[in-house]
Design brief:
- With about 90 residues, this protein is α+β, with helices and mostly antiparallel strands.
- The chain is about 20% helix and about 30% strand.
- A five-stranded antiparallel β-sheet has the order 1-5-3-4-2, covered by helices on one side.
Length: about 90
């Protein structure tokens, strides 16, 4: 596996991972597509939110948990203001 699931974390309008990388909602491979996009953009971490929104940021390892854990993620693809967060394998 080229990425590892860290857990589900809350989010807010002031995003924990502020860089929107695209929407893969409805895609059966949203996590993989988000991973590929984040890797191409040079990020070390990414999150999937709301069923397929892809987010990241250059200080993601410092900010991904700023709103604490959440229990509102589903099937590895987050939820409403809830992010399934992944780190990339080196």
């Amino acid at each position: 596996m080229r990425y590892h699931h860290i857990g589900c974390f809350g989010d807010s309008k002031e995003r924990a991972l502020p860089k929107f990388l695209g929407s893969f909602i409805g895609s059966g491979d949203a996590i993989e597509r988000c991973y590929l996009k984040a890797r191409r953009e040079g990020y070390d971490m990414f999150s999937v939110q709301n069923g397929g929104e892809c987010w990241s940021g250059y200080k993601a390892e410092e900010t991904y948990d700023k709103y604490g854990r959440s229990y509102d993620c589903y099937h590895g693809k987050g939820g409403i203001f809830a992010s399934d967060v992944y780190t990339m394998s080196m």
